[in-house]
Design brief:
single chain; 512 residues; alpha/beta; 36% helix; 21% strand; binds 2-aminohexanedioic acid; Ald_DH/histidinol_DH; NAD; Ald_DH_N
């Protein structure tokens, strides 16, 4: 695995185990239970780790807290310069980084390269932002007074990531958090720890060129649920940003909420596309296939519900079937393949039980769903993406199954389609395909989609980093990446300054 060596990761190995605790100041193998990382490509072991212990977490938090004290006073544009260098190193190693993603997440190379590109893009965004952390000047009701607000660094921030976007989601949080002046601690998915070490290796290369920056501003801790729980409990993390299942997010939110900390959650999606009778079906088809079958259905933004106007449904479904039949399924490292493996057997079993449930609930499997064993590496769980026709209110349709199952639902009026779109507990991404301006505007209006992302003539997945990314309801409400998502990583301080010689009270109160 020369790409790991190119990234400088070989030096992290000792006794065949990779480090579980990593920052410039700390470099240790874990002292907890051992586990192996198996590539979804063929099930083979690619690395072994030992989980970190609570005592090792304590060291990481102490290091991050100390680094934060210095880092918060480093001027934001200098912090931006660090992020600029991180982005340049990521550019230089784009292909090697993508290979680590493919190895651990099973994502095809084209999408893995796209993921590294998201990291690079968010670096560029964050560099510009480092000179734009603006507060407001506010007029005061009192003579001789001025009011303003400032945005200050928040503190050490914990980032808990999922296997499916092991670098991009970390980068959205960490590149923005760094320009905001926070010390960032990553607890990666246990399925993608090598990606975390690769990210850390890039940050450390950049840190080597800027000795004025405290080393402990970025660290990685590889641990199990217990470590995640301890992170959520620890008041030294004013913010815990977590991406993953709703189950995991609920537990993080409850624990962080109990200590009145902040959590930033990006959880499950159950994303829908409405295809109107006026839609450009060629365009819709391309969007559907990428959104539903791309990444083997393992994006938070994956298209899971296709809400079609009754008049176009049969034609559209036929076209999707034809397109699905020609999708190359196989080794994600081989050029030309478009659908790689599911992450593991557990994920395959979950897909099969969802398909069984769909059948029991009156659904009909129109295409796919089965395991593919020919022309794919042995040991991986490759599946043919499934198309299922079913009632919109069947219970299985309201759950997120992290696999390529596309439920096809029908509607007669747009009001009905929007109700169907909004009736699930999740609220991440949504789309409408229509050539009607009225329909598009209704979908985007206050009475339209209730999701954090609502698109017109674009699929549900593949968002750019410039927008705020996240969703409502069980998706958790957090926003990451672009727009003003940076505000979550800072504390707001409202300042009133009296430059007059009197002490007038607000609201005209006389107290003498
Ligand atoms: C995720 O699946 O957790 O919009 C993130 C998209 C990507 C990010 C997905 N930019 O599909």
């Amino acid at each position: 695995m020369t790409f790991l060596e190119n990234l400088g990761m070989n030096r992290l190995q000792s006794d065949n185990l990779y480090c579980s605790v990593l920052s410039h100041d700390l470099r240790q193998t874990g002292e907890g239970s051992e586990f192996s990382v198996n590539s979804p490509i063929n099930g083979m072991e690619v690395a072994r780790f030992r989980n970190a212990t609570p005592a090792q977490l304590e060291q990481v938090i102490t290091t991050a807290t100390a680094a934060f004290k210095t880092f918060r006073t480093v001027p934001a544009p200098v912090r931006g310069e660090l992020v600029r260098r991180i982005g340049n190193i990521a550019r230089e190693h784009k292909e090697d980084l993508a290979r680590v993603i493919t190895l651990e997440s099973g994502k095809i190379m084209a999408e893995a390269l796209g993921e590294v590109q998201e990291w690079i893009d968010v670096c560029d965004f964050a560099v510009g932002l480092s000179r734009q952390l603006h507060g407001k000047t506010i007029v005061s009701e009192r003579p001789g007074h001025r009011m303003m607000e400032q945005w200050q660094p928040l503190g050490p921030v914990a980032v808990i990531t999922a296997f499916n976007f092991p670098m991009a989601v970390w980068a959205w949080n960490t590149m923005i958090g760094l320009v905001c002046g926070d010390a960032m601690v990553l607890k990666p998915s246990e399925k993608a720890p090598l990606c975390a070490l690769a990210c850390q290796a890039v940050v450390e290369k950049a840190l080597d060129t800027m000795p004025e920056i405290p080393r402990g501003i970025a660290s990685v801790i590889i641990g199990d649920r217990e470590i995640g729980q301890l992170i959520a409990q620890d008041t030294r993390f004013p913010l815990v940003s977590a991406t993953g299942s709703t189950l995991m997010g609920r537990s993080v939110a409850e624990t962080v909420g109990a200590r009145l900390g902040r959590s930033l959650l990006e959880l499950g999606g159950n994303n829908a596309m409405i295809v109107s009778e006026t839609a450009d079906l060629d365009l819709a088809l391309r969007a559907i296939v990428f959104s539903a079958a791309g990444t083997a259905g393992q994006r938070c933004t994956t298209l899971r519900r296709l809400i079609t106007h009754r008049s176009v449904q049969d034609d559209l479904v036929e076209r999707i079937k034809r397109s699905y039949a020609s999708l190359a399924i196989g080794d994600p490292g081989t050029e030309g393949n478009l659908v790689g493996p599911l992450i593991d057997k557990h994920s395959f079993d979950a897909m099969q039980s969802a398909l069984d449930a769909a059948k029991q609930q009156g659904g009909e499997i129109l295409f796919g769903g089965e395991r593919v064993t020919e022309g794919v590496p042995d040991g991986g769980y490759y599946v043919r993406p499934a198309i299922v026709s079913i009632r919109h209110d069947a219970p299985v349709v309201h759950q997120e199954t992290f696999a390529p199952i596309l439920y096809v639902l029908s509607f007669d009026t747009l009001d009905e389609a929007i109700d169907i779109q909004n009736e699930v507990p999740q609220g991440l991404s949504s789309a409408i395909f229509t050539e009607s301006m009225r329909e598009a505007e209704q979908f985007l209006s206050a009475a339209g989609s209730d999701c954090g992302i609502a698109n017109v003539n674009i699929g549900t997945s593949g968002a750019e980093i410039g927008g705020a990314f996240g969703g409502e309801k069980e998706t958790g409400g957090g926003r990451e990446s672009g727009s003003d998502a940076w505000k979550a990583y800072m504390r707001r301080s409202t300042n009133t300054i009296n430059y007059g010689g009197e002490l007038p009270l607000a609201q005209g109160i006389v107290f003498e």
